[in-house]
Design brief:
Layout (H helix, E strand, L loop, with lengths): L1 H13 L4 H8 L3 H22 L8 H21 L3 H29 L4 H29 L2 H21 L1
Length: 169
């Protein structure tokens, strides 16, 4: 679950430093960026309330795996998209993935480590926070070395590669 948390949170945050370049490419206003950001957070809220409970019904692996794949697909949507609709759709997918992953991972931890769930959840959350710090740094490094679109494609692939242990567990 830790590898998945790193992959999910880094990919969720990778887009923020790239928004000005995406804004320019799609010819969208600064005010419209607010809709893009809002879409992700609303989708995360929806996922936490509607999707994550499936982890309590023995489907935590399905939720975790679906979240990792959804995050990778959502990140690619920024690379191929050229309109506010594409970016909102990508952010909705990212929000759904982010919102579904963490509760499912915590549920898995509670069942696997009943003697010390707090320590394991703390570890998961610290790795998730690390991903939130790493994602924007990688985005900036990628933008200045290979460009915006390749950076997003690489981020998508890295989401799957880094999340692979969670996918295979």
């Amino acid at each position: 679950a830790e590898a998945g948390a790193l992959a999910i949170s880094a990919s969720f945050m990778v887009v923020f430093p790239l928004l000005p370049a995406l804004q320019e490419r799609a010819h969208i206003s600064t005010a419209q960026l607010g809709w893009i950001a809002t879409a992700g957070f609303v989708a995360a809220l929806v996922a936490q309330t509607l999707v994550a409970p499936h982890a309590d019904r023995g489907r935590e692996r399905l939720v975790i795996n679906g979240a990792i794949v959804m995050m990778a697909v959502s990140t690619v949507m920024y690379a191929v998209g050229d309109s506010i609709e594409w970016f909102i759709a990508g952010r909705i997918g990212a929000g759904l993935a982010y919102g579904a992953f963490t509760p499912a991972a915590i549920g898995l931890i509670v069942r696997r480590f009943p003697e010390a769930p707090g320590r394991q959840i703390g570890r998961l959350q610290s790795i998730e926070l690390g991903g939130m710090a790493v994602g924007p740094v990688l985005a900036v490094a990628g933008k200045v070395t290979v460009g915006v679109v390749p950076t997003l494609v690489i981020a998508s692939v890295l989401t799957l590669v880094v999340g692979l242990p969670a996918l295979l567990a």
